[in-house]
Target: Precorrin-3B C(17)-methyltransferase
Amino acid sequence: MSGSLVVVGLGPGAEAQMTPQALAAVEAADELFGYGPYLARAPERDGQIRHASDNREELDRATLALQRAVAGARVAVVSGGDAGVFAMAAAVCEAMEKGPENFRAVDFSVVPGVTAMLAVAARVGAPLGHDFCAISLSDNLKPWPLLEKRLKAAAEAGFVIALYNPISKARPWQLGAAFELLRTVLPVSVPVIFGRAAGRADERITFATLGEADAGIADMATCVIIGSAETRTIARPGLEPLVYSPRSAR
Amino acid sequence: MSGSLVVVGLGPGAEAQMTPQALAAVEAADELFGYGPYLARAPERDGQIRHASDNREELDRATLALQRAVAGARVAVVSGGDAGVFAMAAAVCEAMEKGPENFRAVDFSVVPGVTAMLAVAARVGAPLGHDFCAISLSDNLKPWPLLEKRLKAAAEAGFVIALYNPISKARPWQLGAAFELLRTVLPVSVPVIFGRAAGRADERITFATLGEADAGIADMATCVIIGSAETRTIARPGLEPLVYSPRSAR
Model:
């Protein structure tokens, strides 16, 4: 029997934002691997084995999943959002490259999903309406000076910036430092959106400007979108404001 | 009767990659607006009016859609991929800002979708596995020197680059010029992926290196992903290569 491994993006959280392809991939699996809260989103199936893990052991989890596929299991590795954006697909590819030759012979595929920044952007208008970038603010796997370089380059070149993994217990100061740095490049009036758990029951969307943005608003489940100098806020009487980045620029 | 307007991202093309939320939003509409090929993807419903348009008249289409919502219709404006990434959500926001006051009182929402770069990335591994940016290469709405500045800044700072709208009959030379510029900044060994119509029947995925990348491979329906200096290609005997960008960097 020949196994397989699929890395599945479950979307931002709401069931209606998970694609039929993702649902089918999860349902077809013999064994599911993933961070506990993501596994909890996949519908239960009799006889299916679930390997829940901490969200920091990504390479170990990827290796174990590949070993199970080599042994003949149909394996699904689940990620929140999209599988390829700061998620498990890169970790599995890394394990395939570093591991034994039979890892590279595994029937391997990736199912994309709606990544967090798209769900947050949809909730507030179209802040990603022109050129933008996505940066993981975690300096566990890359040095902080490289993050500073990327933030500065992106802001100076007029990209809207979406920040993933903005803050955690072990990384309490990085988001505040990022705001400080961006205030030296961008107008303080630039819109900032803190999008927590977009589309889920515990959703919380907070609007701010770069000048007043408080890193304490964010938690691990927050995606922070920082506009460019072109990004605009539309006031609407009795309604939430809209934030959008115009398609045209000078 | 109070109307509404929803901008819907239909995903990259395959039906299994459209979210249930997008399908429901399209089915609930009285009137659909959009570029003809996108409208063709939405299931037909009796009594539903369809306004197909050229893909260049975005602001006019947005204004007409808002007028219909003000008149009481439940309107859906459809986009391929995600609604907020180089698509109709920003055009509708712009029309709301520039238009009469009653445009800003419309019940307005956006339904996100799987945008093209995520679908292309999933097909080849995890090229967007670390910090990345998305750039529309169209200089219809922004000057070419600004695009050069963004391409250079992104490559120098180590972002993977996803290019939307890489080429058209009216813009035949820009993608070649972008490759030329990037060759002055990045190693010629950097992987380049031409992802055309990912997930559709007429899909075509082409692997190249930056040194040999030929702009002629791309067409309007292609998303081009250009790796960073860290992006790696894994050869697999008898299988397509995998391309991924490692989570860690120095």
